[in-house]
Batch of 3 targets.
Target 1
Amino acid sequence: MNNPTDKHLTWFIVITQGLLMSWSIGSSVLEAGPLSAAIITYSLFAIYVIYTLITRHPTMIKLLLLGTIAGILELFTDHYLVDTINNLVYPGKEAMIWSSPAYMPFAWANVLIQLGYYGILLSNWKGWGLASIILGVAGGMYIPLYEHLAKDAGWWWYHQNVPMIFNAPVYVIICEGLISLSLPFLLTRSSNKGPLHASIYGLICGVWIYLSAVLSFWIGG
């Protein structure tokens, strides 16, 4: 059986994260528009699926299941941000599912796979408690950078009727920190169990994303 983490998988995650960030920076500089978001999202998700099918690595299976299920449930959170509090804006020039671009569940899956793997690494190193704190801080810094690039790329943006740090609302930073905070706990709970448990924790993660958005908007919005 494969180890929960290994050098090959670690480099794979690091390289694919670098690919996502490089594409995001390039799209931001070029003001590339929503098509570029769809291209990198579907391509990267396909890479994760193909890698998982080829290697059958148990950690990737669990990350893929958790990330995909949570990403689908994130559609409820997007609807809350777009149509309930009327703060998140999409260009509307792409295929949509409810209030979100069709690629959005997969975009969330990609990010959750990356952050989730780092959560596993940190948990193996320092235990899930300290890992949660570290990843919560890192997620609160990393994802708002992604939000900043997304605005300049024309992927999505926020109305500036709430407290902002650059192009990211304060409540979004809090929300992303809370989401990242949960990943080491969720993934270590499912680490020695099968795909069914990873799916259940994906459902929990999706619900937590929604609750984090509501709580964060109440605190910082």
Note: Residues 58-84 form the longest helix (27 residues).
Target 2
Amino acid sequence: MKTETLIDTLSADVMPRSRVEAVLPWILLATTLVFGGAYLVIAGVRPDLVVALGHANVLIKQVFPALLAVGGLGLVMRLGCPGSGTGRWPLLLMAGAVSVLVAMVVQLVVLPASVWPMAFRGKSLAVCLTVIPLMSLPILAGSLLVLRQSAPIHPGLCGAVAGLMSAGAAATAYAFFCTDDNPLFYGTWYGAGILGIAFLGYLLGRRFLRW
């Protein structure tokens, strides 16, 4: 059987691409609003958010995880459909990663080395490393339920990008609360939480997204 015929046969038994593209963004939005919103109702939005967003480091903290979420969403929908390619969605992921890495390098240059440890540690390390992963889990679970109806050729990669998307959305919500504005803090610890969920998504994808 030719590869094209095999793909067509398998794709006949999965959710059409248009359905995946229609459902997954709503799942991402709904789970982020429910669980991110619940956290913000309990913990509260930082009171100086509007003023703080006028500072580049705060703006990057809000934007870079959002770029990961949006870029991850677009990419994972394509990965779930054989033969779709990746489009330009990886560019958004790169933009998110590059923006925070550049901000971190700038801080390392302008800050004295003596204050680096304090900048990396911040004031809310334990909260950050707890809330972002916990908030990501239901978002990831809902996304994987939809993606189980697709046909990814590389299920581990698809799961990893779903994890990246989910954690990016969770970190975007958490950033409305967080007052640790130094890129050395959020680049390191938001990044650690996001990559941890991406790895979990990889493991779950290999298990649950196989044809």
Note: The first helix runs from residue 3 to 11.
Target 3
Amino acid sequence: MDDKVIDNLKSESRWLRLLFMVLFYMAAYITGFLILVVVAVQVIHDFIKGRPNERLLEFTASLNRYFYQVIQYISFNSESKPYPFSDWPKGTTGHGEPSQQVKDQE
């Protein structure tokens, strides 16, 4: 084997990244399932109330952003680790703007 390959195999940072990738993959799997559960709740809420629940919209917006951050990390498109190693992403309305509730919290 090439010495560079051997050095890469011995690199602790590469193995640690692999461990984080596996853990974040599991987090993405759980997040995806949670998004599906919230979608079902939103459909029921929409049939009953005639409109989606605003709090759940913000929650799923932040879940979507978190899911995206995880996918970016495990696909080597980003070096920054998602939550809990960084802040939880803020939810936005469908227009990409933070909702009034998020603005009030800042």
Note: The first helix runs from residue 3 to 10.
